[in-house]
Amino acid sequence: MVKAFIFDLGNTLIEYPAPEKLKENCAEFAHQMKISGEILNRMHELYMKNRREGFESFREATVETALTEALQESGREVSDLEILELVEEIYHYGFGRLAVPIEGGIGLMKALKERGMKTGIISNTPLPGFLFMKDLDRFDLLQYFDDLIFSADFGKRKPSPDIFRASLRNLGVKAHEAVYTGDSLDRDVKGSQDAGMKSIWLNRKGRQEEHGGYVVSSLIQILAIKELFA
Question: Are 37 and 124 within one domain?
């Protein structure tokens, strides 16, 4: 019996630009930011290097770590509070201002809560989770979730089984009692299946690939998968 539905965030519940576009998205507003273009470029280089390495080790690369290193290299001394302010600024221009809720999210979450389901999010994030929680809140989604895990805070990224197991522990359910929904076959579908969970692939682009789980083209279609609610 399914007791919990867990979701990816980016491009599953909220549309975000790819982390690779961070520098490009910030560049237009560099004159308004408290960080120089030179530091921003170096931060992006370091972040992308750490990100590539993280694909193998499952360790999450963060903008905060890369920014701190770039500032240290430049000789600029900043406090932890200043680092946080810069990180929030980078988030706003690089991600937050471009975020768009994906259709059907609120309707789905309302229906799941009405059916007594526990709900969670597991998301690979390059920045602290509280920033993404602000987006969930402004799009009226935050209220529907019992547990939130962001890889920048957790330290490991999907498809590491550790991050899926942490969510299951937090929700108090066993792997076979949970369903994970996401848009990535590798990180979301295979990752959750390897952790013993059922999976739903949100395939909004109509790709034709084997995946071994359920597939939907829109979030609201999840409610039509009758065996998950039997």
Answer: no
